[in-house]
Amino acid sequence: MLGLGLAVLVGGPTGWLLGAVVAALGLRFLPAPPGTEERARRRESELLRSQLPLAADLLAGCMASWCPPDAAVAAVAEAMPQPIAGRLVAAAVQLSMGADPEACWDRLGAAEPVLAPLGRCLARAASSGAPPAAGLARLADAERASAAREAGARVRRAGVLATAPLGLCFLPAFVLVGVVPVVTGLAGIFLGRL
Q1: Looking at the 3D structure of the chain, how many domains does it have?
Q2: Is 186 within a domain?
Q3: Using a CB cutoff of 8 Å and minimum separation of 24, what contacts does 136-141 make?
Q4: Domain, as residue range, for 137
Q5: Per-residue pLDDT tens over the stretch 108-148
Q6: Element (H, E) at 113
Q7: 189 within some domain
Q8: In a domain, 127, yes or no
Q9: Phi and psi (nearest 5°) for 81?
Q10: Higher-scoring residue by pLDDT: 99, 6
């Protein structure tokens, strides 16, 4: 589209040549749009990230009440929507079948990088024997704070992007109405003295 726009804007054989060059450079250096699989993976990753704080809080509550880890994870998986529910059900099944808790939580983090902090927190608690409730509550708070920072950054970026068209409209008008008359007037005065 960029090459076609340049070809129409410049016109003639030169425009078509410049358009073809710009289109070839664009195809070479611009990134390809993500495919359907990549978009689905990104959407699932964003859903997991948004569900992680609530899941961590629920796990903290269940484990603070001395519920066994497999029962706590199964209860939280039942309460949560997909896609995090499926990941937690798989971990609960592994734990109920006697899998090593550290290895189970490491697999959870390795399978989905978004859930890696949850897996590390639970693996650390399983290896040390410490109650994981406090670590899970800190994880939930940290994830919520991170989401708030990202939302603030998106809002600031949207504000900047919203002002760009305004600048593109007013800057040429300012130059044509404010700068060009002054420059032509000064040029006339200087050229008149020569």
Answers
A1: 1
A2: no
A3: 136/56, 136/57, 136/59, 136/60, 136/63, 137/56, 137/57, 137/60, 139/52, 139/53, 139/56, 140/52, 140/53, 140/54, 140/56, 140/57, 140/60, 141/53
A4: 58-149
A5: 888 888 888 888 888 888 888 888 888 889 989 999 999 99
A6: none
A7: no
A8: yes
A9: -80, 175
A10: 99
